[in-house]
Amino acid sequence: MKAIKIQAPGADYRLVVDTMPQPEPGPGQVLIAVAAAGLNNADLLQARGKYPPPPGASPILGMEVSGTIARLGEGVSGWTAGDKVCALIAGGGYAEEALADAGSLLPAPDTIDLVEAAGLPEAAFTAWANVMDAARLQPGESLLIHGGTSGIGSIAIQIFAARGHRILTTVGSEQKCEAARKLGAARAINYREEDFVAVVKDETGGKGVNVILDMVGGDYVQRNIEAAAPWGRIVNIAYQKGISRRS
């Protein structure tokens, strides 16, 4: 099969098309005929030699794909060859075919094409796992999402607004505020012009929000604590501003 190979990993890497062995689905796996692959920061870091794939994973880039199931491995149920899917994988997406664990598959929505579906798995799994599984967002609770127009932020707003939660979010411009509101945010906060802690307190009658999803870190660590309601839950999924250290 044809796949994209990293040539000279490092600062001056190149991506080239090469011929590589076709993967075979093992127990619990499916083989996907790839229609499209997502691009993640982990792919860029791996190409630069700074983020090696986990042991046993494909050296080919690509952590999320969409396409149709070509073959099923032993023990896989609930899926059939020809199903349109998208999937989160450990690697191997930049190729004509890729392996995925059956538990990491999502049905490709009928409302979008397969190219768009390739951008769903990483963001959708990240939003759901951290807000629902880790933070245990409950019916009627409020949610503050930082980076509301990022990939994860934008899908998180849509998912949890659709589930009836009041969503507050931070973004960096008035244009992004408008985009966040269209996605379903009840209140979009331009962090360049407003103090999100003060806005959250005002919007919640001084109580604070129940759950906060943050990928900023730095001084937001303490500010999130101030914006959270009693017994609120804060989930940090990245530290773009570093880890705040206080003496």
Can you offer a commentary on this structure?
With 247 residues, this protein is of the alpha/beta class. It has seven helices and twelve strands. The protein has helices at residues 41-47, 114-117, 121-134, 151-162, 174-183, 196-203, 220-227, and strands at residues 2-7, 14-19, 29-37, 64-72, 84-88, 97-101, 105-107, 143-146, 167-171, 187-190, 209-214, 228-236. Strands 6-3-4-5-7 form a five-stranded antiparallel sheet. Helix 3 (121-134) packs across helix 4 and helix 6 runs parallel beside helix 7. The mean pLDDT is 96.
Biggest beta sheet attributes: 5 strands, antiparallel
Low-confidence stretches: none
Number of β-strand runs: 12
- Class per helix and strand makeup: alpha/beta
Query: How many individual helices?
Result: 7
H/E order of the elements? EEEHEEEEHHEHEHEHEHE
Residue-averaged pLDDT: 96
The portion of residues forming beta strands comes to: 25-35%
Proportion of helical residues: 25-40%
The global form is: globular
Largest sheet strand order? 6-3-4-5-7
Alpha-carbon distance between the two ends: 56 Å
